[in-house]
Amino acid sequence: MPKKDGKKSSKKDSQLVLRLDKDERDQFVELCKELDTSAAREIRRFIRDFMKENSE
Questions:
Q1: How far apart are the C-alpha atoms of 50 and 41, rounded to whole Å?
Q2: 16 by DSSP, 3-state: which?
Q3: Residue 5, SS3 per DSSP
Q4: Residues 39, 32: contact at Cβ < 8 Å?
Q5: Could you state, in chain order, the average pLDDT of each consecutive group of 10 residues for the chain (56 residues)?
Q6: Closest C-alpha among 19, 21, 41 to residue 32
């Protein structure tokens, strides 16, 4: 059910499991903290940008 203000619900209802090198993951998470963001937010941003760049 959409919100009354016309915005989409921000509830996430799906997960994507990734396997990556522990050192890379730790460096990525640490860099995100330094940049005052979260790893999940940056991965979601990457996915949106990737889909936008590659859609027709």
A1: 14
A2: coil
A3: coil
A4: yes
A5: 61 91 98 98 97 92
A6: 41
Tell me, what's the pLDDT at 12?
Answer: 78
Nearest Cα residue to 43 out of 55, 53, 33, 28: 28
Residue 12 to residue 41: CA distance in whole angstroms? 12
Q: What is the pTM of this model?
A: 0.73
Spatial contact of 3 and 9, defined as CB atoms under 8 Å apart: yes
Q: What is the Cα gyration radius of the chain?
A: 15
Contacts of 39 (CB under 8 A, 6+ apart): 28, 29, 32
What's the pLDDT at 36? 98
